[in-house]
């Protein structure tokens, strides 16, 4: 004979189990609905193909330690950050190509990101920076690019100056450039050129 | 009595003459890299740190033979931070500081001065931009080195760079990067392992520093 209090306890536990099962089922359904809603919000249309434009690339030449401007046609986005990454990608593709005047392995994928920020000004806070004022470009290079870059003062300086010159030629508002490697500050590019300082694009003027 | 006075005046004159010190001329040679920092790898498998140490030793001997006092930042395969190198150079109060490097890129001798903007000498200088007060002298030293190297028949390129070690030096400072000698079609005519080439470079640099000492002695 089962005592009455045990019957009541068993019934209560059974009811609690059923209620918990229903709640779990509802939570699962809600999560499923949220997931479907998220998928609906994802872009489904193909990205717009950027029109081809002429870009000025400041190309280094090891044989005479010079920087020369070359004109290349390449698809350029209207977004300044994407535009900066595209021109630097093309520049590094040239350096990685066989017969390069400044051989550096890595290619276009060596530029992870380019961030464009208002240039630091002693008299203005970033919030009050003018809309069309000078910009600081922060170039984030990949660690593999820095690791494989030829070591030497001339080789590293030419790479840094050609990047600064190319940014300035295509984005005239960029007056200063800083470098990161894998998102971190790094002492030198490959043992020589200082990557902790801010470079002025005015110092990277190619020869006429 | 008169003789004693004359003798005393003579002794005083000798004492005054003995206090006139000859002009102190010190050169700092900084063999770049060292220890675990090997620097670039050169074509013959040699590391940049070994080449620079060898060139530093050779140049030190040539300068010592010409009566020039030399301070080196390292005499063995030891690692040194750029700050320590600049510290050694600044304590030496040298009239010329050469940071010695080597690279397989480019050709001939690359002379680099700091890319810092020239500034007036102040009582206290920021460590990372200490070189800015000496930029005028550094450019003049680079000019003297350029003339001597060209006179020795070498190809020279002059440039400005951001190199932490020379940016923190207060002496006239130039980074000297030795690259292979190349002829037409970028063909190597003398590699970095060529002893004759190394000797020519060291001799030309020594001649330049002797010339720099002469220029420094002029009022």
User: What's the pLDDT, averaged over the residues of chain A?
Assistant: 89
Number of strands of chain A: 6
Instruction: Tell me the count of domains of chain A.
Output: 2
Q: Give the uncertain stretches of chain A in residue-range form.
A: none
> Could you spell the SSE succession of chain B in H and E letters?
HEHEHEEHEHEEEH
CATH level-4 homologous superfamily of chain B: Zn-dependent exopeptidases
Task: Briefly note the structural class of the backbone of chain B.
Answer: alpha/beta
The helix/strand class of chain A is alpha+beta
CATH hierarchy, class of chain B: Alpha Beta
Query: If helices are DSSP runs of H or I spanning 4 or more residues, what is the number of helices of chain A?
Result: 4
Sheet with the most strands, sense and barrel status of chain A: 4 strands, mixed
How large, in whole angstroms, is the Cα Rg of chain B?
A: 20 Å
CATH topology of chain B: Aminopeptidase
Q: Helical stretch count of chain B?
A: 6
Helix % of chain B is 40-55%
Shape, per Cα inertia axes of chain A: elongated
Examine the secondary-structure arrangement and name the CATH architecture of chain B.
3-Layer(aba) Sandwich
- Terminal CA distance of chain B: 43 Å
Summed over residues and divided by their number, the pLDDT of chain B gives a mean of 89
Greatest interface (CB-CB under 8 A), with counts per chain: A-B, 23 and 30 residues
Task: Compute the number of structural domains of chain B.
Answer: 1
């Amino acid at each position: 004979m089962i005592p009455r209090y045990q019957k009541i306890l068993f019934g209560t536990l059974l009811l609690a189990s059923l209620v918990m099962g229903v709640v779990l089922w509802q939570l699962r359904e809600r999560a499923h609905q949220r997931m479907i809603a998220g998928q609906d919000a994802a872009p489904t249309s193909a990205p717009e193909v950027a029109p081809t434009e002429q870009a000025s690339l400041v190309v280094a030449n090891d044989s005479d330690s010079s920087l020369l401007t070359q004109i290349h046609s390449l698809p350029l986005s209207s977004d300044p950050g994407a535009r900066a990454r595209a021109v630097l990608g093309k520049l590094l593709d040239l350096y990685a190509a066989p017969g390069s005047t400044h051989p550096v392995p890595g290619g276009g994928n060596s530029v992870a990101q380019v961030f464009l920020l208002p240039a630091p000004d002693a008299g203005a806070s970033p919030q009050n920076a003018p809309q069309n004022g000078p910009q600081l470009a922060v170039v984030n290079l990949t660690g593999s690019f820095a690791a494989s870059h030829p070591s030497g003062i001339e080789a590293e300086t030419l790479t840094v100056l050609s990047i600064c010159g190319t940014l300035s030629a295509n984005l005239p508002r960029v007056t200063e450039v800083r470098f990161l490697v894998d998102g971190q500050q790094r002492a030198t590019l490959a043992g020589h050129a200082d990557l902790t300082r801010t470079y002025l694009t005015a110092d990277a003027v190619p020869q006429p | 009595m008169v003789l004693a006075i004359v003798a005393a005046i003579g002794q005083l004159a000798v004492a005054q003459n003995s206090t006139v010190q000859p002009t102190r001329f010190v050169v700092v040679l900084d063999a770049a890299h060292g220890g675990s920092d090997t620097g670039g790898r050169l074509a013959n498998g040699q590391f940049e740190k070994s080449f620079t140490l060898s060139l530093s030793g050779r140049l030190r001997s040539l300068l010592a033979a010409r009566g020039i006092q030399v301070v080196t930042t390292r005499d063995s395969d030891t690692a040194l931070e750029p700050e320590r190198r600049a510290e050694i150079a600044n304590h030496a109060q040298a009239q010329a500081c050469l940071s010695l490097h080597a690279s397989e890129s480019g050709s001939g001798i690359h002379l680099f001065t700091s890319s810092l903007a020239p500034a007036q000498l102040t009582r206290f200088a920021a460590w990372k931009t200490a070189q800015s007060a000496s930029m005028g002298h550094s450019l003049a030293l680079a000019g003297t080195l350029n003339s001597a190297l060209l006179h020795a028949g070498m190809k020279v390129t002059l440039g400005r760079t951001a190199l932490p070690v020379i940016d923190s030096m207060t002496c006239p400072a130039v980074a000297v990067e030795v690259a292979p000698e190349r002829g037409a079609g970028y063909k190597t005519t003398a590699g970095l392992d060529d002893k004759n080439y190394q000797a020519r470079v060291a001799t030309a640099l020594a001649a330049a520093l002797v010339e720099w000492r002469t220029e420094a002695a002029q009022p």
